[in-house]
Amino acid sequence: MHLTVSLSLPSGSISHERQRNHHHFLEKILTPLDTMMMKSTDESETKWKIDDAAELARDFWVERDGISALKLTEKTISDHGNHEKCSSHHELQGDIFYAQAKKTDDTDLKCLYLFASVDAYSMATLLSPNALTLRSFRGYARSLIKLGDQLRINKFYEKAVSKAKLGMSITSPQGKSTEGGYFTKIKTELQNWIDLATTKMQATVAVSDIGTMDNQKEPGEEDTSFDRLKKIWVKLDDKTKINFLVVDFEKLIGYIQDKHGTEVKEHFQKCIPIANNLRWRCWKCHICSQVNYCFTDCKMHILDNHVHNSEPDFSARPKCVDEILADMICCGDWKPVDTAEAENLIKDRAKRGEEFVYVNGWCSDWPEAKDRERENVLKQFAEVLKSSCAKENCTLSCTLWDWLRDYTEENLELPGVPGIYLDQCCFFKNPQCICFLDLKHLEHILKYFRQLTTDVRASLVPKVVNQFWENSQVKERIDLEGVATYNLLLDKRLLYEEELESDKIGTVEHYKSTGIFEDVMPKGDKIVSWILDCPEIDREFVSQMANGVHNSKLWLAALRIVRCVIRKKESYYDKRRKMLTYEKMLGEAETICDREDTRKNVNQRSTYESALRMKCEDLVGKQDDDTKCFLSVVRDVFERQSSPSFEVFEDKKCISELSSTVPNDDVKKSLLTLRKSLKEKFPLIDSKILQNKSTYEKLIDVFPKLSAVEYRLVVLPFVKKFLQDKLKKMMKTNSSSVAAGDSAERKPKKRHL
Ligand SMILES: [Zn+2]
Ligand SMILES: [Zn+2]
């Protein structure tokens, strides 16, 4: 077996070029004689740098600092692009994302990390498909199997087997016996993965109920102190109530220091936007740490600087069907038509000169077939078709629709019906014609369309991101008092009964507490529930927020997926370009053959074969893509290939060595076969491109939301705990003054402390 690497990699890394201008110490040492060596010296310097960074990153990882490891690898990869040596960085990212996937209980999050690790391993194996990346092949197969387990999709097991086999085909490095042992070990593991994936593919996966971790608090458990706190609250005078809105910063800090220690206190302080113009809420880029206060700005920053997506010329993009047709497809009933009866009906109407009237693609006159099987397959097909016609992102390409129409026209059996009559009714222009197909043909189109299944990631990533986004919403405003004291001024609406909307901006104003709360008239006891509704303090979260690394892993994993979708797009377009060139060159070959047919002097005609050979000889020395492709076409024709091969054909001599003689008939037949095969490939690639574009848009639409940073999520739990403490102290003094006798029973349960 041999390795084919089909993915096209973006050309030349700019930053690598830039690096060449900084030769550090080398400049002084090199003599003019050495300049010829410079390129290779520089290259080895780069290699050394990349390896060094990889080692350092792995050290971070070993010391459980996954975020630093990810950041270093990310930087190295963006500096050196697709340098072969970067494969170790991709591999490390694969390991980190895989470990993260293992750690999480949330199924969606787990899958997201697995997808990121799959892409990382995939890049590692593409950049350097040799003995060094054998580990990546193992990781690749392993992550794919886990994805198959999570999503219960066989495709992932299939891919796991193919990747593991690719790894198995790598030959071990010569010599070293210790390396050999390591090699054998990994190969055994690869074989195990192959066996496992094969078994899983065959087994019907039992649906096991793995409920997602429910973070909701247990209800039921009624807290008796809760009611008492409310009673106490009601008795308080307005001024005391209003005073709850002013959180004394000094006291709060003291409280945190007491309960959680210096480290947590320092982290907490870092999360307070003390300087003017800062906000509670911002958007942070997790690669270059740029902070924006507007979602759109942040999105633009990420797209411009870290995503690098470029759309090809409009003319090179496949078109999707228009809205009118999409609408026809979606509104249809899709019931099979009884063709025998329909035939009689057509003949009858044709005789009388009547036509079938279609309204929005459908005509109700056609007799329905009572055929359960046909109905069922047609229903499934209609669902696939409808799902590709969604209003905002239509992914049904014109070429695919044309293919479907041609296919229907070719395979529809209505003997004795004049074609002209059908054309008059626009029979084949309306989607209902598909309902005339028999079972065999319906099954064929269903299978064909199923190849274009939707990308799981297109729904998975938005689901994870939106969950994160929802969790980052905060309703309460918090302002600050003064310039020196920084008392926190809570939202006065907390003293009322009204429902609060999310505060998406998180501005911080500086007020005097006496000024803004002057006219507040407290109503109800909602604030007591608010104070008690409080998550436990999560020290790790607080520290990550203070250090600006909260969410970094998820952010980088999602970015990997976005970039993976873009690389896929580039490879699709690359393929499409090759197909277009092939189509053009196929036309050229046909023209050459036709020219022989049209020569007036029959004696001057040469065989197609020799005419094509002559053209090839004329092209000797030319290196452009068209020429190379023309040679591929000729070779495919001579070899009687059933489908085009898009590999570049470098060695022209091969043509002359190919096959002894190819009769004219065979050349003609071969040209026809190739054209037909090529024609079938366009709808597929066009649909994949449209599908990919839709996935990309869905991802990019939500991905930047992961940049959201909400400091109130750090601050509020501490404030609530602090206020609980304050309220409970009030209750203690209150109850001890009321009745000293049963104070033991009335002692509040320490629920939240
Ligand atoms: Zn250099
Ligand atoms: Zn950035």
TrEMBL record:
The domain of life for this entry's organism is: Eukaryota
> What InterPro entries does its record include?
DUF627_N, DUF629, Ubiquitin_hydrolase_53/54
Which named protein is this? MEE20
**Ranges for region Disordered:** 734-753
The Gene Ontology terms for molecular function here are: hydrolase activity
Residue stretches making up the DUF627 domain: 57-171
Which organism is this protein's natural source? Arabidopsis thaliana
Q: Keywords assigned by UniProt?
A: Hydrolase, Ubl conjugation pathway
Please verify whether the record's keywords include Metal-binding.
Answer: no
DUF629 domain ranges (all copies): 228-681
**Cross-referenced Pfam families:** DUF627, DUF629
